[in-house]
Structures are given as structure tokens and as C-alpha cells.
Amino acid sequence: MLPRHPRRQDIRRGVAHLRRGGVIAYPTEGVWGLGCDPRQRRALRRILALKRRPQHKGILLVAGRAADTRRYWSAQGIDPALLAQLWPGTTLVLPATPKVPFWIRGRHEGIAVRISTHPAIVALSHVFGGTMVSTSANPAGQQPARDLRTLYRYFGRSLWVLPARLGGQRRPSRIVDARSGRILRE
């Protein structure tokens, strides 16, 4: 059985892997996720290849604190009360800053950002020193992995996996356009 909270040595190993340009699998609130350093284009290409996902769709970023994500989005036109109401937990589509590389945002002008309270994500983000790429661990068109057996069936044993439990959510996070308040995914 996986521990509820990741062990410190496992967090350090995961962060070392991220810094070397590696891809990791880690638990999120509801499904297993794939992540990498958003500044490492080769790592993101590996995630996209594993998922068989086109780059033009873009990919979201996750962190344990909103402050860690600020370099990637602009608050212009965003109601601060909306941020306070929806974070942590909801994925918000925010105006991307010029610092967001095209390989992260795809063909979009905005960037999807989620602030998480999951202990694994909070610890990884804290020790890593910021924001990570986050996407569900599944090939395109397949259901996201909700257990290690499915994760290994999809990707084999080629990924470094942070051993910790998933959170209790049954559905992926809600996605809201922060400019309009429109729900993009319930």
C-alpha cells in the first residue's frame, strides 16, 4: 500500500529527476499525473510522445502556491476575488505572459494553471522551487490512470514514480476561464 504522504527522500529523488530533464509520474487529487520542468522542452516532448498528444493543444502547470506560478500569467483583467474563490483546486485559464514558451501553451493565448493541496504536489513544488508541467497519465483517448497497475500498463516501468496515494477526488479538476468566469470543464 502506498503512503498517504510522500517520503522526504522520494521527494528529493523526484526533484533531482525533474532537474535532470526527466519525466515523473506522481499522484494528484484524483488521477496519476505526468510532470516535468516546464523549461525543459525535451522533457515535455517526451510527455507528449508518451501520451500521443499534439503540442498545439497546450498543457497545464501546477504548483503548491500561487506565488510560484506568477511568472507564467498576467493578472490584467482578472478579478482577484475569483482567484481567491477558486484556488486551490480549480484549474484556471489565465492570460499567458511572454515568458510562457509555445511548447507549454500550444496555440492558445492563455495558460492553464492549478494550485494544488495534494501533499505530493505541494512537497514536489516546494523542494523543486516552483511550477511543474502536469497532465493526466494516460495515452490520448484512454481513461486517466487511477492506480499503479494502469499506469504501468500504459507506460511500462520507464517512468520514475513518486510513491504516494491519490487524493479522494473522483473527477479531474474543474477548468474555468479566469477572464470570463466561464466553466470549460465541470
Name the features.
186 residues, alpha/beta, DHBP synthase, nine-stranded mixed sheet, 28% helix, ATP binding, nucleotidyltransferase
CATH class: Alpha Beta
Helix tally equals: 6
**Structural class computed from helices and strand pairing:** alpha/beta
Any idea what the CATH architecture is? Alpha-Beta Complex
| CATH homologous group name | DHBP synthase
- Strand order in the sheet with the most strands: 7-1-2-6-3-5-4-8-9
Task: Please name the CATH topology.
Answer: DHBP synthase
Q: What does the overall shape look like?
A: globular
Radius of gyration: 15 Å
Strand content: 15-25%
- Describe the largest sheet: 9 strands, mixed
Average residue-wise pLDDT: 93
What's the N-to-C terminus distance? 31 Å
Instruction: List low-confidence stretches.
Output: none
In total, the number of strands is 9
* Total number of distinct structural domains: 1
Level of helix content? Answer: 25-40%
What is the chain-wise order of helices and strands? HEEHEHEHEHEHEEE
Enzyme class: transferase
GO molecular function: ATP binding; double-stranded RNA binding; L-threonylcarbamoyladenylate synthase; tRNA binding
InterPro entries: DHBP_synth_RibB-like_a/b_dom, Sua5-like_dom, TC-AMP_synthase, TC-AMP_synthase_SUA5
Pfam family, one: Sua5_yciO_yrdC
